[in-house]
């Protein structure tokens, strides 16, 4: 849709914000695992993909949770309730395949907890026993703990610095859960690519099928440009239409990470300018 | 006009198109071809012999009365000329610029035949552009008046030339029209693909403004199949018919080593970043694009030319265009090939990329090519290029743009049960543009495979006529 009003805004941590936005058509159609593309300004602004963290078809709204990492997320964070974003399109991407598999483990790292939330919720609603592992650099950066606790049959929280929960990387409890006699039938891991890479190699050891959600750089989000392509089991796929979820055991994470750095130079020009304003 | 003999007409030199200087234009996005002056248009129009059998008309996919409009220009009646064109074409300012005239209307022109060169044919496209520009620049474009409301509603999916044409023809009959566009701006390839220096965006915008003035509704940021499915539009949202004109937007890659390195683009991505997202406006646009020094473009069509010429304008020092066959087989318009050469693009004919080389970071460091020679003719009658073993060589580049064509986007097919498509994913339609499903019509590149603006427009007119008839009956 063209121009969408911000209904609600909350700061979840120093750099993470939650917003509820007007989007009646998207709220009606969206399913877990899907995302939108947003433009703060549709003349010179860029198109950025953000996961639909939740939706309220009655209010006609969707919820996004985003981390300020550069120019567009910074501008978005400056908008207040009642302001508008210029363009919002979606829901995009193939929805998550949800079924009752018995028991599943959901691993979320950093901002990845936001896209994990609707998936964990749907897996629970489908009757699964859901173990949730959340990781963050420190307590201050941990988001959506309450919402995830509500869903989880079991929740394990880790921080890198030990400021909250276990002092560990998420792969540690993940390995323990996979080693249990009653090992999970599926692992869903969403977070920074490096985390998904190590989660995938962990689950592979235990032969636990693993789904990851990839965050390749996008333009159109409809399969038109091929900019979001990734290598999956030696084949090229487009994240925006074939994904965003893929079999973690087949993803070439190294190529994904390299491609995510394509515009580091141009983006850092902006970061320098951001510093000047502070 | 009648005072000139055919001999005198043939003696008038073909009028050259005024163009931006080939050095200056390497660093701006402004239009290269600047359009005939009134004097030139008159002279060029005088070259037309007004042939009784008018072979040119059969070369135009929409059958414009070419001698008719040219005579009006010769008589100084531009208003009449544009009226004649608009009986058949709704986008003359666009088609006059981008039609492959040398293989269409101008190919069979008697003057060109007599002078033994298609380049010396009457410049029908330039004259068409001249009167269309004259009308727009003088503020004379009037939105056609729609007939009284019929209470019927038609949805048009995609706002390329096919969709825009359908919308105009259906709205005129008094039906409500809603246009759905996935992007934030309407116009299809005319906006996101063909660059400003060939087709200024204000011309396309004018066409959209006219549709809106006629009462068409425009829903941008609306992906049919995702935001709403075809079935829901028909069953729940009150649409009486739908036209699908979603184009051929799925880039093909070469499937060679190194294609996912940083610095490899599809032409679609490169052109979309530059045109639609305005990445060429470096200080102001947010969307980044590679700052390339040396670029290789793979392909030989209009898309490849546009990508190569855009790379020049974005500051590349060296641009190589690599094509497997020879220049004769190149599908790009002759004029664009000529412009590309003037702008310093290096043409590599009978060569093809074999793999893309990587540096230690996973960025493009070069391209390995192989040389070809022409062998026996293939099914299409063209001599097939055959690789010369052991002829590998490298070109030092930091960017590779793949421009080898597009397939059809599968989204609508996947989300519309029962919609028949062929093995390339194109929607199958009958002679009226109707698909295998009731009330659903289709046209343009989604039916033809990657084709042309004028063919998309022609298909749109045909489908619109069928839809109007269905709604009247
Ligand atoms: C399917 C998908 C879902 C996503 N969901 C979320 C989410 O729910 N919350 C969230 O905070 N982030 C999410 N992201 C990442 C988010 O899109 C980027 O953080 C954002 O685009 C950065 O823009 P920027 O201008 O602020 O930063 P920049 O400084 O421009 O970029 C910072 C980094 O973000 C990445 N990036 C830049 N432009 C794009 C782009 N157009 N598309 C994708 N990545 C880009 C690059 O790796 C870049 O180095 C998602 C990405 C994808 C592909
Ligand atoms: C770079 C380039 C240069 C070209 N140069 C020339 C030339 O010089 N001369 C010439 O005659 N032809 C040229 N062509 C070809 C010509 O542009 C196309 O044949 C023509 O635009 C096809 O028109 P169309 O209406 O079928 O679709 P398009 O112009 O492709 O428009 C389709 C529209 O539908 C939208 N869409 C797609 N899916 C959906 C969906 N699910 N929901 C909503 N909207 C959707 C797309 O975003 C797009 O805006 C060129 C093409 C390219 C890419
Ligand atoms: S529409 Fe194209 S083919 Fe037809 S007369 Fe005009 S330029 Fe020629
Ligand atoms: S064929 Fe050429 S000379 Fe004859 S009517 Fe057509 S444009 Fe004029
Ligand atoms: S973002 Fe363009 S194809 Fe996926
Ligand atoms: Mg950015």
TrEMBL record, chain A:
<keyword id="KW-0411">Iron-sulfur</keyword>
<feature type="binding site">
    <location>
        <position position="228"/>
    </location>
    <ligand>
        <name>[2Fe-2S] cluster</name>
    </ligand>
</feature>
<dbReference type="InterPro" id="IPR012165">
    <property type="entry name" value="Cyt_c3_hydrogenase_gsu"/>
</dbReference>
<protein>
    <submittedName>
        <fullName>Dihydroorotate dehydrogenase B (NAD(+)), electron transfer subunit</fullName>
    </submittedName>
</protein>
<dbReference type="Pfam" id="PF10418">
    <property type="entry name" value="DHODB_Fe-S_bind"/>
</dbReference>
<keyword id="KW-0285">Flavoprotein</keyword>
<dbReference type="InterPro" id="IPR019480">
    <property type="entry name" value="Dihydroorotate_DH_Fe-S-bd"/>
</dbReference>
<dbReference type="GO" id="GO:0050660">
    <property type="term" value="F:flavin adenine dinucleotide binding"/>
</dbReference>
<dbReference type="GO" id="GO:0016491">
    <property type="term" value="F:oxidoreductase activity"/>
</dbReference>
<feature type="binding site">
    <location>
        <position position="240"/>
    </location>
    <ligand>
        <name>[2Fe-2S] cluster</name>
    </ligand>
</feature>
<dbReference type="InterPro" id="IPR017938">
    <property type="entry name" value="Riboflavin_synthase-like_b-brl"/>
</dbReference>
<dbReference type="InterPro" id="IPR039261">
    <property type="entry name" value="FNR_nucleotide-bd"/>
</dbReference>
<dbReference type="InterPro" id="IPR050353">
    <property type="entry name" value="PyrK_electron_transfer"/>
</dbReference>
<keyword id="KW-0001">2Fe-2S</keyword>
<dbReference type="GO" id="GO:0051537">
    <property type="term" value="F:2 iron, 2 sulfur cluster binding"/>
</dbReference>
<dbReference type="InterPro" id="IPR017927">
    <property type="entry name" value="FAD-bd_FR_type"/>
</dbReference>
<keyword id="KW-0479">Metal-binding</keyword>
<keyword id="KW-0408">Iron</keyword>
<dbReference type="GO" id="GO:0006221">
    <property type="term" value="P:pyrimidine nucleotide biosynthetic process"/>
</dbReference>
<keyword id="KW-0274">FAD</keyword>
<dbReference type="InterPro" id="IPR001433">
    <property type="entry name" value="OxRdtase_FAD/NAD-bd"/>
</dbReference>
<feature type="binding site">
    <location>
        <begin position="65"/>
        <end position="67"/>
    </location>
    <ligand>
        <name>FAD</name>
    </ligand>
</feature>
UniProtKB/TrEMBL annotation, chain B:
<protein>
    <submittedName>
        <fullName>Glutamate synthase [NADPH] small chain</fullName>
    </submittedName>
</protein>
<dbReference type="Pfam" id="PF14691">
    <property type="entry name" value="Fer4_20"/>
</dbReference>
<dbReference type="GO" id="GO:0016491">
    <property type="term" value="F:oxidoreductase activity"/>
</dbReference>
<feature type="domain" description="Dihydroprymidine dehydrogenase">
    <location>
        <begin position="26"/>
        <end position="139"/>
    </location>
</feature>
<dbReference type="InterPro" id="IPR036188">
    <property type="entry name" value="FAD/NAD-bd_sf"/>
</dbReference>
<dbReference type="GO" id="GO:0051536">
    <property type="term" value="F:iron-sulfur cluster binding"/>
</dbReference>
<dbReference type="InterPro" id="IPR006004">
    <property type="entry name" value="SudA-like"/>
</dbReference>
<dbReference type="InterPro" id="IPR028261">
    <property type="entry name" value="DPD_II"/>
</dbReference>
<dbReference type="InterPro" id="IPR023753">
    <property type="entry name" value="FAD/NAD-binding_dom"/>
</dbReference>
<dbReference type="Pfam" id="PF07992">
    <property type="entry name" value="Pyr_redox_2"/>
</dbReference>
<feature type="domain" description="FAD/NAD(P)-binding">
    <location>
        <begin position="153"/>
        <end position="460"/>
    </location>
</feature>
<dbReference type="InterPro" id="IPR009051">
    <property type="entry name" value="Helical_ferredxn"/>
</dbReference>
